[in-house]
Specification:
Rossmann fold; binds 5'-O-[(S)-[(2-aminobenzoyl)oxy](hydroxy)phosphoryl]adenosine; GMP Synthetase, Chain A, domain 3; 3 domains; globular; alpha/beta
Length: 533
Amino acid sequence: MKNHNVEVIASCGEERLDFSPVFNVAVPFIDRHLQEGRADKVVIRTNLGVEVTYAELAENVNRCGNALLGLGVGRGERVIMVVKDCAEFFYCFWGAIKAGLIPVPVNTLLRTKDYAYIIADSGCAAVVYSPEFAAEIEAALDQLEDRPTHCFPVEATGEGDSLQRLIAAAATDLEPAPTTAEDDCFWLYSSGSTGSPKGAVHCHRDMVVTSQFYGVQVLGIKENDVCFSAAKLFFAYGLGNGMTFPLWVGASTVLYDARPTPQSTFETIEQFKPTLYYGVPTLYAAQLQLLETGSCDLSSVRLCVSAGEALPADIFNRWHRKTGLSILDGIGSTELLHIFISNRVDDIKPGTSGRLVPGYQAKILNDAAEQVTAGESGQLWIRGDSTARCYWNNPEKTAQTMVDGWLDTGDTYLQDQEGYFHYCGRNDDMLKVGGIWCSPFEIEAKLIEHPKVLEAAVVGKADAAGLIKPEAHIILQNPAAADEALTAELLAHCKTGLAPYKYPRWFQFVAELPKTATGKIQRFKLRTKLGDE
Ligand code: 3UK
């Protein structure tokens, strides 16, 4: 087989991927399209009016790889990307990969202390950021003892370096680094329950696996599809939806550079007419609310996808009634890179995550580590070829989570008699809010900073649509001070230091918190069960 080639081999209805011994994943995802005659096809359209063809994409990927190499970033070194959804995200991500460097896209909604942690933990050689995030990034860099050598924005505001200037000045030809399918390729940080993010290390093979097994086999994505992901590229979910799946089949993608609102998402759909639309449950719920009073022409869309947290059956049904469209709910994770259990266009059971995606195996274990029988719940473990190799710099967490090729998802699931998987909650205290991780410890720490707060416990509570939001239980220094003004004060306090989705939506002032004999807060005792309200 030629270098940098991957073949999809089908036999007996099952598919297998065969990688050439020298394999750089930028070749099949970027360069292949020029050989296959797509040079002039537009691959990226953005809300700012930018249009990029496959030929321009390939050239800018080369330029960007050369620019990074020219700065002295070496093979295997990390490039942190705090970049909004825009064409340069593609150039930087694929340019780094083609040059043998490791891009690390990071959540753009984080705050200074998270960035300081991730930059230090990754030991990165460069940090590239959209100017919108300059204040948080520069504050993070100021906190560090060892500042990475190269830190620059995508677009320059003044004189200095910028990704755009470096790209413009760089050479247009770049040989792909001679990597293999098992070599480290890119990382994604996932939040941990103690608040410290963990870098999941993915190899060159992983994006091929998710694109072929979920993108092609489950979504049936084809060259004429137009993708629009409201979930951003820095999430593993958005990265597949809005970038790797369309690039795998020579399709196109629509990028929206700001925070998605129900309104802006509908406008983007009407303007760019995507065929595949990807959202998260909170957004579908908000869009449904908007459809009560307004309307949106969704006629271009053939299929909607939801992930990040469980999609309540009620939202599926209302969306279907209102738009005639199905939403495929599927569960994915940063560690497995994309969705591994999913509903199918012709096989949907609302309120469940569906069945296994081809290429993945599942087991559900009870507390004695034995497989449970149908209908019984337990811990969900998954095996598949897109699993991260390890967590960077964290052998303990790696050994706990990745065992004999199996990955502990941290979720409780049951499989019913018909084979559908039902989500039953997390095994830890972590919350998913709008599809994004929230650590209760982090929110509690913020609350305790406030001089009037003695103790705090944060748990997830379902709102009217059945979606989880943080609820704070608070013991005050002076219990008599509890009133609406204080609630407003605490809310404002949380909104200043926490990522925007993390503030508590409810405040309960209590006299005591349930604790174990060793003083650990028993958050499970504070949780209102789904469906109680
Ligand atoms: C939860 C779900 C119920 C679950 C992701 C699609 O969410 C993604 O990755 P993360 O690492 O979080 C993983 C965890 O989120 N979850 C995700 N989807 C669902 N729970 N139903 C769902 N449909 O706790 C899981 O362990 O942020 C989603 C594709 C790629 C992804 N990385």
